[in-house]
């Protein structure tokens, strides 16, 4: 498989990344553009086209056998469409067909971004060797995916494990998805920062109001910053424990930009997990950072295209 080559796209609310990836998961060529997330759908697609344009210009493109896409969700792999919560211009957007038009009609495999990180972590990362795992990406949004019985479990439309949009606060803040108190509304990077600002935290001289800046303040002992991360950790712990109780996962792997906060996130998360994962068969659940880093979405999308245990079915390849 090492001689195989595929194209991969990782589409999120902040960036659109692309790569040519070989059968060993090595990224040989990469390209990236900011996501014009608040623009109309065709403007977003033009950014995707620019990324693909850089890939198709590579001499290696001639070897590309397929395209894998990991996209912010929800996605519908059976129809080849995407409706990302954080890209409002895409609702039922025919992404697979548009990508096929730009890539010489290569086969295209579509999975959600949470499923993509799961494919990457099970193939090359912290979930290797585990038959039952939850892998999460906590960043601009919160997504996830499941490995059950040793195999990726994307579900009929490619959204199984979409943990960011389960409610952990029944009377909580409205979420853009339409529900209330979703994990994403509490634990995503922008919401960690929003809560810290609402609580009176002030950014430094650089005026950086990102979750990374809040994490730095938390490491320095700022009580409001610490409280915001503890609230995020509590939401994540509740959702992880619920998932473990439902399907008996053995490990929860957490990646994405917010996970870079390190102990600021993981220490209160593991502490809160003891309050929620109380039944005997979930008490030994392991929680660990992802290993595949910022390239997880690309590696996972490539895994889908390569069919490395991550194929989501022919529906997205039409």
From TrEMBL:
Q: Which Pfam families does the record match to this protein?
A: ROK
Q: Which regions form coiled coils?
A: none
Q: What is this protein called?
A: ROK family protein
Superkingdom of the source species:
Bacteria
Matches recorded under PROSITE patterns: ROK
Q: Which family does it belong to?
A: Belongs to the ROK (NagC/XylR) family.
Q: Tell me what organism the protein belongs to.
A: Streptomyces mesophilus
Q: Check the record and name the Gene3D superfamilies matching this protein.
A: 3.30.420.40
């Amino acid at each position: 498989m090492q001689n195989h080559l595929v194209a991969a796209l990782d589409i999120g609310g902040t960036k659109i990344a692309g790569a040519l990836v070989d059968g060993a998961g090595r990224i040989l060529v990469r390209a990236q553009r900011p996501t014009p997330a608040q623009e109309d759908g065709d403007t977003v697609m033009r950014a995707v086209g620019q990324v693909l344009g850089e890939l198709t210009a590579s001499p290696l493109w001639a070897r590309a056998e397929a395209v894998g896409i990991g996209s912010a969700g929800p996605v519908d792999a059976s129809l080849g469409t995407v409706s990302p919560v954080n890209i409002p211009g895409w609702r039922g957007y025919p992404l697979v067909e548009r990508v096929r038009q730009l890539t010489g009609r290569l086969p295209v495999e579509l999975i959600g971004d949470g499923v993509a990180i799961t494919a990457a972590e099970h193939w090359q990362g912290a979930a290797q060797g585990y038959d039952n795992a939850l892998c999460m990406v906590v960043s601009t949004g919160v997504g996830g995916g499941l490995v059950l019985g040793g195999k990726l479990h994307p579900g009929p439309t490619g959204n199984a494990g979409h943990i960011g949009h389960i409610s952990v606060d029944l009377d909580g803040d409205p979420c853009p998805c339409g529900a209330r108190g979703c994990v994403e509304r509490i634990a995503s990077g922008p919401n960690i920062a929003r809560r810290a600002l609402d609580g009176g935290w002030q950014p430094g001289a650089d005026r950086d109001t990102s979750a990374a800046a809040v994490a730095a303040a938390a490491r320095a002992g700022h009580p409001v910053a610490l409280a915001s991360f503890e609230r995020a950790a509590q939401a994540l712990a509740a959702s992880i424990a619920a998932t473990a109780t439902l399907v008996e996962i053995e490990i929860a792997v957490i990646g994405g930009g917010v996970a870079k906060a390190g102990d600021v996130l993981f220490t209160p998360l593991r502490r809160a997990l003891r309050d929620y994962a109380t039944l005997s068969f979930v008490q030994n659940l392991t929680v660990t950072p992802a290993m595949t880093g910022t390239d997880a979405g690309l590696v996972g999308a490539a895994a889908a295209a390569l069919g490395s245990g991550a194929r989501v079915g022919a529906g997205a390849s039409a």
